[in-house]
Amino acid sequence: MAAGVATWLPFARAAAVGWLPLAKKTMPKPPVDNSSRSDEILYLNVSGVRFQTWKNTLDRYPDTLLGSSEKEFFFNEDTEEYFFDRDHEMFRHILNFYRTGKLHYPRHECIQAFDEELAFYGIVPEIIGDCCMEEYRDRKKENQERLAEDTEANESMDAPLPPDSTPRERLWRAFENPHTSTMALVFYYVTGFFIAVSVIANVVETVPCRPPEGRVKDLPCGEKYQLAFFCMDTACVLIFTFEYLMRLFAAPSRCKFMRSVMSVIDVVAIMPYYIGLVMPENEDVSGAFVTLRVFRVFRIFKFSRHSQGLRILGYTLKSCASELGFLLFSLTMAIIIFATVMFYAEKGTKGSTFTSIPASFWYTIVTMTTLGYGDMVPNTIAGKIFGSICSLSGVLVIALPVPVIVSNFSRIYHQNQRADKRRAQQKVRLARIRMAKKGTTNAFLQYKEDRGLGGRDSDSTALCVKNRSAFEHQHHHLLHCLEKTTNHEFTDEMTYSELCMTESVGFRTSRSTSLSSQQGAQNNPTGCCPRRARRRAAMRLANSTASVSRGSVQELDTLHIKTTSIPPQTRSSLNAQADNLKLNCGEQDFTAAIISIPTPPANTPDESLPPSPAPIPGILRNTRATAFTHETVKISSL
Amino acid sequence: MTGCAKRCKQGLVKFAVTLHKLVTGTLIKDKADDDLEMTMVCHRPEGLDQLEAQTNFSKRELQVLYRGFKNECPSGVVNEDTFKQIYSQFFPHGDASTYAHYLFNAFDTGHTGSIKFEDFVTALSILLRGSVTEKLQWTFNLYDINRDGYINKEEMTDIVRAIYDMMGKYTYPVLKNDAPKQHVDAFFQKMDKNRDGVVTLDEFIFSCQEDENIMRSLQLFENVI
Known about the structure:
By secondary structure, chain A is mostly helical.
């Protein structure tokens, strides 16, 4: 029921007195209303802007946030007002809805922002008044289409193939998006080349060549070099047939593929050749055969797979079908009318070319399209008058639907441009978001160093700590807890890759699970680590009890490394022997988690590294006890 | 004959004007601005103090009532169509328009065709805060459609049928066609003391005061506001 109806309820109830004398039975007792009768003003503070309204106003819609007891969650007792940390400009509209019963959509607002506000306040968008409903719906649909386009584009085009795709799916993808693999690209260009060759051959074989000896008349090149052209044609048709069969095989839905326009064009392009092969060299059917050769020109339509502009044009024509139909119909009407008139106007003249009405059709068409060949010309005065009217009206009739078609084409073309641009921008945006995410993990690694160094230089640690917010503190603490749980540590990609390299010398590496392991997976240097992935999985369980140590460790047993981010600075001093890691608060470096099996230190740390902090060997010793025994662990000494 | 000639002349003039417009290029017909003119009748009620004196409501109650009233009818008056619409919203099952029509006439004491805020509040004051006699008098006025001081069977049948219409089709037990008639007969049986076929105001008040049920139920609606 509408909001205002609530205000009339007392009146309706009062009017019920009129039924009382007629009542056959006793009336039920009225509901007892314990709430305070007097109306009060509520204060709503929305991001600092104070709104005031009667409580009754908000009570009109009890199934929304403001009308129900849900608003009590936002009640601030100190200031005795309801505080909402939302946009106050949009709140204006929401409050007006309560006041007037009509919800309006502000045209300058983003549709999604508006939707979110409505969802927050528990208002259903369907109650938007008629005045704004159309605009709202249009913009919402446009927004949804855009989003659908984006997700569809993302899924279909750029997403990497799932690893378990069959060869058939890969083949189909290669056909649809040639730029995904080099083979597909090569095939794409080859087919394009052959289409061009075939079309040019079709054209050239009709050009007259110099006649061979013994002949006077010029011969078309096709007959002179018959064998050459035949071979070229065969080659092209073979390529096209092969391509068509491959596509047919790879198509996810063969029926759908066979019905599609491109497939029909393909078939029409290659059929004439085969029919020509099959057909006998008969004089009667050779006429039909010649007709069939005309269809070879359809090969030029195969270019639409290679050209987006052609596709857009085709799509435009399809979408303007109704306008084109109208154009055709109105033209036909006008042609018939004028042809009839011209015929009867010119009927009297001797030797007139307007022999019948269908013959006049030609004159009318030529005149209406302002061609004016001049092969048929009216001679009588009446004929000339009607002829001029015909040409004037022709311009109008043809010009009218053209802007519609043009605007359709422009709209579709720009849509395509926008989609392409958006896709390109999307990649950049995603890359930037990834960089930002890495920034936070860098901060964590930084935090770890500061924390871990503990008893060092308190000034520098204080400096390092200062710039972090409470949120970051807690977040880092959380990550630290995770490290403790899994008994592994976070490191960055560069160290990991370097540690990877040392693996070739005989170290094992295994990866610990990390927060940003998905990113790490992508940044993984493909060279060294993927092979170890399998061994990693096996070792992961066993390594859960692996100890962690920092600083220079002489021996490595297994290296737990997490690749997260690309450290902005290069650690040039870090050598391939990853056991020598330096800790430095100033640099954005990290430490690698290293498991060691205790053996006496055999070599000195690298001079380029600062001396490792004292407590670390102690840690080493402590962890000795927890060192695991793992059959596959290789021990080597540096 | 003159009318025909006049019409012909008007048509000719119009045609000439159109031709002139065609030639000079103003093809758009100038629409009269009277479309946009809406009669904005705005009525303001008497002062709050006066209303308070005239009715049995307190100032606060009048404020609440007026705010609701003004919100729904910014022009300050309710016409019959709006009234019917509002009242029908409370009875979605059936057709409340007939009864709303009678109600409207009962509210519109001045027979102006629209209800102002004073009418509204006066009627409410009687119904909710008035004495028993006043209430019964109001009800009698409601039933007496032609305002002749008597309720006859036809008027009563109309009222009762209008009330039954509000129930709609789907009732339990199923509504029979002669239910209103039976109801009216029962009513007249009770109210018409001298059996003259009509009910006067005194008979009505007297009979109602005899009936305890009615007396009790008259107190029911006192706390509506």
